[in-house]
Amino acid sequence: MAFYIHAGGAASRPLLEPCSQGYLLFKDVLTRFSKLDITQIGSLVAIAGVLPSAWRFLRHAWDETYSWVRHCFLASVTIPGGDPLNRSVVEWILANRPRNYRSFTGLTEVGNSGMDRAAALKKTRHPIRNAFLVERSSDSHSIAMSNNPGYDGIGGEELTISCFGWSVEPVKRFIKACRDYTETQTQFFVIIYSRDRYGLAWQPKARKPIRHLDTVHFDNQLKQDLLADIRNYLDPKTQKRYQTRSMPYRRGYLFYGPPGTGKSSLSLAIAGEFGLDLYEVKIPSVATDADLEQMFQDIPPRCVVLLEDIDAVWVDRSNSSKPVQDGQPMPNCTLSGLLNVLDGVGSQEGRIVIMTTNRPEALDSALTRPGRIDMKVYLGNISQKSSEEMFLRMFSPDLGFKFSFDMDEMRDLATSFASQIPDDKITPSALQGFFQQHLDSPHDAVSLIGGWVKEELAKKSDKEFEVIINNENAV
Ligand SMILES: Nc1ncnc2c1ncn2[C@@H]1O[C@H](COP(=O)(O)OP(=O)(O)OP(=O)(O)O)[C@@H](O)[C@H]1O
């Protein structure tokens, strides 16, 4: 089903400045008024007195006519504010309306789903085209919505969708298309939520295309174990099992390892793999423990909560007097506040909490104890096996590359490429940077990797040398 948007014409451009136009009009009225005699003024006043009643009469007549036209010529469906379909329709409208238009018409062609318009017209002999009228009733704004701090302003008002004719089928198809649209969005994208700038509500911050787990390279066995653990946790049977045994239904993961080894990428990939939204909690910007608690209470049950670089926040529990760490002021909420929202008595259940860190040894043991962190996943520098997989992924024929050699030769190239990369010395992000420069030719990548690795290792040892010198100077 394809939809087209028709928008009104562009507004005409003003010839004069609005101020000077207003002034001229006012002067003109004043001059004319001063030339009237007393009877003419009397008639004008009488007309002015009648105007409100005339206006009321016209409005009433319009309302009656409109409801009669609606009744006779329009088929309508009303969707209450709290219904999930309401949100789907509003999301479709937001995604398809032209920018800067206050009104537009959505047109749908029935029976052409997923095809380009020309192909669709060929296939459907008599395309049915519908214009829909979508009206929202602002006084029906659900109180539950307006009281909900997590409400992001999408949907919530009663919608009436109408089309010409006596059958509501086209409207139903339009609503179904809107629902399919939102389902597709969740299928292909991960919605990332962050707190708004006032810290009052969660708002969608970005819509990222799903990243497949195959594109995050690390120990394959560990990856399988992690996936199995999450799958098991999200299984409704597990929830029942936990609840019947009075165990808190929560799961926490710690992804640790050097910078650029895929901790954030893995979190995003997990959200995509399990069709979950991702809620980013930035501890340094949370003002108080009460705010942190409110934030966690507003997060829905099935989602991924991501606390990145948790080591940069606290190193121990005594944080009540706002000390300074590495020249940076420490956050206002305390570690006890965080521990409390993670698994305190009133904490919510059913989410996946992922914390990431470069320095696991710096974390307070209370934060990493089972119940708060149930599985630790190490993401390190790239292994030879992973670099081979990365090579094959980068030059995959599925991405549209056309090479004059077959897959066996590609595999040989990948093996030769990987053999030049020492195990556990180069970060995956650095290797990705190398590929970005040689995406046109796998042969170039193989012939140049040896020299590049040498340079990278030399840079690394220079950096380590600098760190030692700096530390010695500091002592
Ligand atoms: N294991 C990996 N597999 C594939 N790509 C990776 C991997 N690690 C990093 N990358 C790539 O490197 C870039 C940075 O990765 P990411 O931000 O996930 O790393 P990180 O470990 O979270 O880094 P930091 O600790 O600095 O936040 C991304 O573009 C990602 O595609």
From TrEMBL:
Record flagged with keyword rRNA-binding = no
The record's catalysed reaction(s) read:
ATP + H2O = ADP + phosphate + H(+)
Keyword Mitochondrion assigned: yes
Q: Which Pfam families match?
A: AAA, AAA_lid_BCS1, BCS1_N
| Signal peptide start-end | none
Q: List UniProt keywords, sorted A-Z.
A: ATP-binding, Hydrolase, Membrane, Metalloprotease, Mitochondrion, Mitochondrion inner membrane, Nucleotide-binding, Protease, Transmembrane, Transmembrane helix
For molecular function, the Gene Ontology terms on record are: ATP binding; ATP hydrolysis activity; metallopeptidase activity
**UniProt subcellular location:** Mitochondrion inner membrane
Gene Ontology terms, cellular component aspect?
Answer: mitochondrial inner membrane
Q: Which domain of life is it from?
A: Eukaryota
Protein's membrane topology: Single-pass membrane protein
Where is the AAA+ ATPase domain positioned along the sequence? 249-383
Q: Which residues form the BCS1 N-terminal domain?
A: 48-216
From the UniProt record, give one GO term of the biological process aspect.
proteolysis
* Family affiliation: Belongs to the AAA ATPase family. BCS1 subfamily.
Q: What is this protein called?
A: Metalloprotease m41 ftsh, putative
